[in-house]
């Protein structure tokens, strides 16, 4: 089932509720998802894929207390890291909000795992995870880094590069990649696909 939502209406809604930078990021992630689909010849409904990127951070600016309360009230199933670091809750909370509104299941699952990465995130989740990391407004990459990542032959190879970069970045701060992200990296390195 493709999305029956109107992208322009969703953009207008987000423009009202998100801070300008987050809105800009959201549109760019949607556009980057579509760009990745063209480059890697994926076959998603383009509108649905764009909306997945557009809506992925819908709950990103909620207060931690609101995220925690929502997660408790809706009995959301959470990963350990999401309990420990509540800002990550914007992914499962955002997914639950979109599910309640009737967005397609694969879109909701992609949003669900966009922060930590997961073997359960599906192929749309793979595209979203990558797009969230490489979209042009992200200052942690320069044009050379971006071009190098986009030179990878497959989405899987590109995702491994991102997971490794994330892992190194976290380690430099004395932290570790999530269990979920680690399992994803292992699966992809063994040649697995989503
Ligand atoms: Fe996010
Ligand atoms: Fe994001």
Automatic annotation (TrEMBL):
UniProt cross-references to Pfam families, sorted A to Z: HD
Reaction equation(s) it catalyzes: P(1),P(4)-bis(5'-adenosyl) tetraphosphate + H2O = 2 ADP + 2 H(+)
EC numbers for this chain: 3.6.1.41
Domain HD/PDEase, residue spans: 18-146
SUPFAM superfamilies linked: HD-domain/PDEase-like
Gene3D superfamilies, per the entry: Hypothetical protein af1432 (1.10.3210.10)
Keyword Chaperone carried by entry: no
InterPro entries noted in UniProt: Diverse_Catalytic_Enzymes, HD/PDEase_dom, HD_domain, YqeK
First-level EC class: hydrolase
Annotated CDD domains: HDc
Protein name: bis(5'-nucleosyl)-tetraphosphatase (symmetrical)
Gene source species: Sphaerochaeta halotolerans
Organism lineage string: Bacteria, Pseudomonadati, Spirochaetota, Spirochaetia, Spirochaetales
């Amino acid at each position: 089932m493709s999305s029956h939502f109107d992208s322009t209406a969703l953009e207008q809604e987000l423009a009202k509720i998100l801070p300008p930078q987050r809105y800009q990021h959201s549109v760019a992630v949607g556009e980057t998802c579509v760009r990745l689909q063209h480059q890697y010849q994926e076959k998603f409904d383009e509108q649905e894929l764009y909306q997945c990127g557009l809506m992925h951070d819908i709950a990103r600016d909620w207060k931690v207390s609101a995220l925690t309360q929502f997660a408790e009230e809706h009995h959301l199933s959470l990963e350990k890291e999401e309990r420990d670091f509540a800002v990550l809750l914007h992914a499962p909370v955002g997914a639950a909000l979109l599910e309640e509104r009737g967005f397609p299941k694969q879109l909701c699952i992609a949003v669900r795992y966009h922060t930590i990465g997961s073997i359960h995130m599906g192929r749309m989740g793979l595209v979203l995870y990558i797009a969230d990391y490489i979209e042009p407004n992200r200052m942690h990459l320069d044009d050379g880094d971006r071009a190098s990542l986009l030179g990878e032959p497959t989405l899987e190879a590109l995702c491994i590069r991102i997971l490794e970069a994330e892992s190194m970045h976290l380690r430099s701060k004395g932290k570790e990649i999530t269990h979920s992200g680690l399992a994803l990296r292992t699966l992809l390195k063994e040649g697995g696909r989503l």
